[in-house]
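Hello Y.,

Per our agreement to keep a running log of every chain we model this quarter, I'm adding this entry. I've kept the format consistent with earlier entries: sequence first, then predicted structure.
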Amino acid sequence: MNTEPTSPGDTERWLCAGLCLTRQEHVTPDAVTASVPWLLALLAESPALPPVAFVMDLGRLVAGVPLAPSAAVPDTLPRLRAAVRAYDDHVLGRLAAEPHLEAVSAALARLPETLHPRGIAFLVARVLTRMGFTAGSPVSPALARRVLERPPTELLQAGYTALRESGTSAALERLAEGYEALASAARRAQALLGDAESFTLENLEHLHGKAQRMALEQAVEAAEALSQSLPPKLRARPVSLAPLPMSLEDEAAFPQGGFSSVSNVGNLENLVTSELVYMEDEPNLDLFDVRYVEGELLYYTRDESITVRRRRVITFVLPPGLVDARVKDAGVRWQRVVVALGLLLCLVRRLSLWLGTEELHFRAVFLRADDGAAPLEAERGLCELLLREYRARGTAEVITAATLEGVLADAEERTKRARVDVVLLDASRQVETMFHSPGPRVGLHVLDLGAPSPSVRALRDRREVLDSRKSEPSEGGPRAGEPWEAWLGVTLELAQSLL
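Predicted structure for the entry above:
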């Protein structure tokens, strides 16, 4: 399919005609003006553009502006009219029904106004990538800027003229090819929006450069893919640790107890409402004032009971040797270290859901090298973004430690008041031999990333309770030589072990 314009004039007609095909009742100059920054930002993302009306439609859709897919298509080539109708059904119809659309719209609305064009350009590029769309038309950024800087009324007039004139059939044929490719790609795509889009938009203002953004997208995609191996619910195994008293996040606003009794001592906000019947409009002293002075008014009293929950601390240790996992294995879409960070995010999300009645605290500890260097600084920054929501709640932290022995000693100290698990991500296969076994109350889980197919080994009370290398693959389970299937199996085994 040849989608490259043959001349600057052809490109100009392609752009102007595309602006007039946006799916709303009447294309206004204000709508064109609002979409120009989106188109220029998309050109910075990709050298090829889809039909420009798709950028306008998606931007308006995520902004909460209703589209009009049943609006009349301007009079033009029959092939183009049919392609626009197919685009309405298979692209806009699917986008409007996407379950992640609300989360994406909310994340975009929270961005600063100056970042909205960048956010919409990112979103358009991601949707096109999910669809596998490759029929974009290469457009010179200088030419596009020169055309789009013209008055919007002039652009619309040129666009409607191009749609009607027979001399512009080359540009209209390319538009028809682009719409047909969009509809065909949308029919083949599993989903047009996902968690990666909303997650990246929420962190867009904290991302520095396209490389970090792509790493964040891939880690979230890996977390989504790994979560498919986990059931919706898993039952936690019984533990001997007794519940401990906990403090609520906002005790002043939400006391743990309820109203337990009535007393003549209390604050006015707890006054029994029936006491207001004693208030009178007479200028003289009324009965309410008398009862207040004599301490006879009735007040509700709260049951200030203490909430008790079990406390859990789960520590993920990432040693410097994890740099050896910066490789991409055959059969896996992402680098090994990116999948490992996706596994960390997946476990944090699922354990927070499954163990919601317990007080959970997650720790991601990055170890320094022997010379004091921090070879995993890029991964540490990415982990901070992945856990930003949990760090804001106070349920997760990302820290740096000097030695593994210090981390295990701290874990042993925490066992006095909590159940503690340590997950060691070992890519060099040497870290485990460099430290003594932790205390009997610390659960140690070693995730071996030294090979394309990972494995996990769990110790508790100095006893080996899991070694995925010794287990026989179940029917339909992960088999040797299938790295991604091994990742799915390790995720389930590690989740069950942590429960």
